[in-house]
Specification:
The protein has 288 residues and is an alpha/beta fold. The chain has one domain (3-277): NAD(P)-binding Rossmann-like Domain (Rossmann fold, 3-Layer(aba) Sandwich). The chain contains ten helices and seven strands. A seven-stranded parallel β-sheet has the order 3-2-1-4-5-6-7, sandwiched between helices. Helix 4 packs parallel to helix 5 (151-170) and helix 6 runs antiparallel to helix 7. The longest helix is centred in the middle third of the chain and has 28 residues, at 97-124. The radius of gyration is 20 Å and the shape is globular.
């Protein structure tokens, strides 16, 4: 039975991946932050073992590693899927620094500390039996394309893209692969949480009040119309099992218009598209 650890498994992509891999016969250690979040996962499939794992809490990571290590019985872990993350909307010029820093604490530093702690199980401890495992990091279209009002989120996903490439090039010594999956819009609760944060209109008294509302409406609609998270679960399985996996997968709805064309357009052109779409143009300065 192949084994995998998945962070952020209580909802969305993480839960879909846990259920999909378990249905394929994998033993899934599903990282959740509350015991109550693990109950539906256990009921969904007996191959899923929930573990308390908040990537912002080093003690929980170390305890999770011990639990998984004991279950492996000296064998290597086949996969680590770093999925846990947050997203909050806000214009960078006035977004509170504690909110900006929280994105990095979870999306980047949490991913780093989690990966470093699980690497011995993936094969850096060469006394373990079995083939080296693989790391799969869930990034985003935002890891390559920065939109307005998600600068903090995009910054962390850009960082994760770079971290994934560096891990892959360094861990070749141990035979451990590192792969990025950058989805487009997916039907997950992450954007509902962002909507909750924006509902109080924290930027209502700024020049970005109307543009950010238009942006929020666009993102929320995209989330509702986005890919089924099961598709991302299937992509994760491919990344973990392919004999020749890609370094990066991009499951994106309407891929031509949402990925291929935007990634090839000059940045100034994209600036203009964003400005027009969300109603942003330079203010005329009043002169004496």
């Amino acid at each position: 039975m192949k084994t995998v650890v998945i962070t952020g498994a209580s909802t969305g992509i993480g839960r879909a991946a846990a259920e999909h891999l378990a249905s394929k016969g994998w033993k899934v250690f599903a990282g959740v932050r509350k015991h109550s979040d693990g109950d539906p996962l256990k009921q969904a499939n007996a191959n899923i073992q929930p573990i308390i794992l908040d990537v912002a809490k080093p003690d929980q990571i170390k305890a999770a590693v011990q639990t998984v290590s004991k279950a492996l019985g000296g064998k290597t872990l086949d996969g680590l899927v770093n999925n846990a993350g947050i997203a909050s909307m806000g214009p960078l010029p006035v977004q509170p620094m504690d909110q900006f820093e929280q994105h990095f604490e979870i999306n980047v530093f949490g991913l780093m500390r989690n990966t470093q702690n699980f690497l011995p199980l993936l094969g850096m401890n060469e006394t373990r039996e079995g083939k080296p495992g693989r790391i799969v990091n869930i990034t985003s279209v935002g890891g390559r394309l920065s939109s307005p009002f998600l600068g903090a989120y995009a910054a962390t996903k850009h960082a994760v893209e770079a971290i994934t490439d560096s891990f892959r090039r360094e861990l070749i010594i141990y035979g451990i692969d590192a792969i990025a999956i950058g989805p487009g819009s997916v039907k997950t609760p992450i954007w509902d949480k962002a909507e909750d944060m924006n509902r109080n209109q924290p930027y209502a008294n700024t020049v970005w009040a109307e543009p950010i509302q238009k942006f929020a409406d666009t993102m929320l609609q995209g989330g509702r119309d986005g890919l089924d998270p099961k598709i991302i679960g299937e992509t994760i399985e491919k990344a973990l099992t392919s004999s020749s996996p890609k370094a990066r997968y991009a499951p994106v709805p309407n891929k031509l218009t949402n990925w291929i064309i935007p990634t090839r357009l000059p940045k100034r052109w994209l600036d203009g598209i964003f400005s027009k779409r969300f109603g942003m143009k330079a203010h005329d300065k009043k002169r004496d």
